[in-house]
Each structure stands twice: as structure tokens, then as C-alpha cells.
Specification:
The protein has 286 residues and is α/β, with parallel strands linked by helices. 57% of the residues lie in helices and 16% in strands. Bound molecules: iron/sulfur cluster. Iron/sulfur cluster binds next to helix 2 and helix 10.
Length: 286
């Protein structure tokens, strides 16, 4: 097995169960079924809508013209509401054709509702960033800078125990908070926050790698898209740092077991083993 290139998702998997990571790598195992179709649909649709939105407003003068008119009349609560409306209207313009396609596929109503709730949350975050930029700089060109980082794939080399590893990953959404001069990593997770302990390890790594590449501080928000509600969690810098240390310890363990060609012992992981698609194979291996 080759450990020269690992994904941040691999590290999240290893945080849950190191044995799972080593078994899937050693025997090149992949699940032969698709998990949570609705959850995937929500996640993918929201990602695509944000990508379309960012691409669209790069070329959309009317969007910035409308914001500029508001910025000239000063910053106040009324203007804040208008900014939210402009952002939401713009999202809705993009969402409408997507919604028509979803309706034709007879997608369940709660899925459509959850997508729109998520877009509402994203609109609120985007609007706050726009409002804060106007409040600080009174100049539309600073607002345009909010959406300047749209590249979400990354690759970065790190060295652990004399082993060079290429870490790769794909971020959900990357926005520049110009009023604080920091990058905002905005991650979407399907389900409620049951995966939070592992999600923060993944996101702490994203934050570290992005900071290393760009030289700009990062802040982090996670949006959980549950079946009944959407929940937003903002991570403190201390929590990110703590989890970054955990992430490096996990990578060290991955390297140690890989280099010794060993399989970690089986554990009885409550709430994890019973849902693990690898359970039958895992039970047959010492
Ligand atoms: S069954 Fe449990 S111990 Fe085995 S790989 Fe899956 S999560 Fe890990």
C-alpha cells in the first residue's frame, strides 16, 4: 500500500477507526453501495448552487450596482435587510432552474426545503460579510474581494516521522472575510452533528493547510443539514488548534502502522462498528 498521498477524508476515517483506514488501504476496499442518497443530493446541490452563485456574481454588474447604491446611503439595519434580499434573490434566480429539475425527479419535499434552508443560511453569512465590508471600507471593490477565493481543491506536502505525505482535499466553500482579513472556511455536513468530533479534525486540517498555502488566517463554520433542521457551529481558534494536534497524532499512527505493515487490533466501537460496511471482513482478520 502507498501512503505518499492521503486525503483529508482518509484522516477523518482514521480518526474514527484506524483499523478501518489501514484495512481499506491495504486491501484496496471500497463500499459497493451509495450511502444516504438524499443527504448526498442535498450536499451536492448546495455545493453546486454556491459555485454557480460565486461564478455568476463575478460577471454580474447589476448585483454589485445594487449593493453599491445601498453602500452609498450608509450602513444601517434597513440596508442590512436590503443586502440580504439582494443575495437571496440572486440565489433564487440560480436555484429556480435547479428546483424545476428536482421537481421533475419527484424528490421528497423535505429535501427541497432543506436545500432552500441551507441556501438561506449561506445567504445570511454572505450578507453579513458584504455588510461588514461596506461598514469598514465604504467601497464596492472590497465587496468584490469577498468572493475572490473560489478554488476549493488543494494539495500540500507535509512531513511526518521522516515520511513525506501529500495531503489532498476539497473544501465546500471558501469566502474571504475582508473586514477581518481572514479566509472563512464554510463546511456543510449532512445529518445532525453526530460526526462532530471527526468533522473538527478534518476541518482543523483544512484550516492549517490553507493557512500554510495562503499565509492568511482562517476561521471556520460548519453547517449541519439534518432532516428536521439546519444547525450552524462556529469553531473557536483553540478548538481548531487542539484538533489539529489530534490530527497530526492520527497521521503519525497511520504512518507507523503503514511502515510496519501492521493492522491495528479490532475495537468494539459503539455506534461505529454496527454501521460499518467492513464489519464482516474486519471480523475475519486478526
Ligand atoms: S467494524 Fe469497527 S473495528 Fe472493524 S473496521 Fe469497522 S469500525 Fe473499525
Amino acid at each position: 500500500m502507498n501512503l505518499s498521498k492521503v486525503t483529508v477524508t482518509n484522516i477523518r476515517d482514521a480518526a474514527k477507526c484506524l483499523r478501518y483506514f489501514i484495512l481499506t488501504k491495504k486491501y484496496n476496499l471500497k463500499p459497493n453501495f451509495k450511502l444516504h442518497t438524499n443527504a448526498l443530493l442535498i450536499g451536492n446541490t448546495v455545493h453546486n448552487l454556491i459555485d454557480f452563485f460565486v461564478k455568476d456574481i463575478k460577471q454580474d454588474k447589476p448585483f454589485y450596482n445594487e449593493i453599491e447604491i445601498i453602500s452609498k446611503s450608509g450602513v444601517n439595519s434597513q440596508n442590512k435587510i436590503l443586502i440580504i434580499k439582494i443575495v437571496k434573490d440572486h440565489f433564487f434566480k440560480i436555484y429556480k432552474p435547479v428546483l424545476n429539475k428536482l421537481m421533475k425527479r419527484s424528490i421528497q419535499n423535505w429535501v427541497i426545503l432543506r436545500i432552500w434552508e441551507c441556501i438561506n443560511e449561506v445567504s445570511r453569512v454572505f450578507s453579513d460579510l458584504i455588510y461588514n465590508a461596506i461598514e469598514k471600507y465604504h467601497n464596492i471593490k472590497y465587496v468584490q474581494n469577498i468572493f475572490r477565493y473560489s478554488e476549493r481543491n488543494f494539495e500540500e506536502e507535509i512531513k511526518i516521522l521522516d515520511t513525506k505525505i501529500k495531503l489532498t482535499g476539497k473544501l465546500d466553500s471558501l469566502i474571504f472575510d475582508i473586514s477581518k482579513n481572514e479566509i472563512l472556511i464554510f463546511e456543510f455536513k449532512t445529518g445532525l452533528n453526530e460526526g462532530f468530533p471527526y468533522d473538527i479534525i478534518q476541518i482543523a486540517l483544512y484550516s492549517y493547510l490553507l493557512q500554510k498555502q495562503s499565509g492568511i488566517n482562517c476561521s471556520v463554520k460548519i453547517l449541519y443539514l439534518g432532516q428536521d433542521k439546519v444547525k450552524e457551529i462556529e469553531l473557536s481558534p483553540n478548538l481548531v488548534e487542539l484538533n489539529l494536534n489530534n490530527a497530526f497524532k492520527i497521521i503519525e499512527d497511520m504512518v507507523k502502522f503503514h511502515d510496519r505493515d501492521e493492522i491495528p487490533p479490532k475495537k468494539q466501537l459503539e455506534h461505529i462498528c454496527s454501521f460499518c460496511w467492513l464489519k464482516n471482513k474486519c471480523d475475519t482478520i486478526n
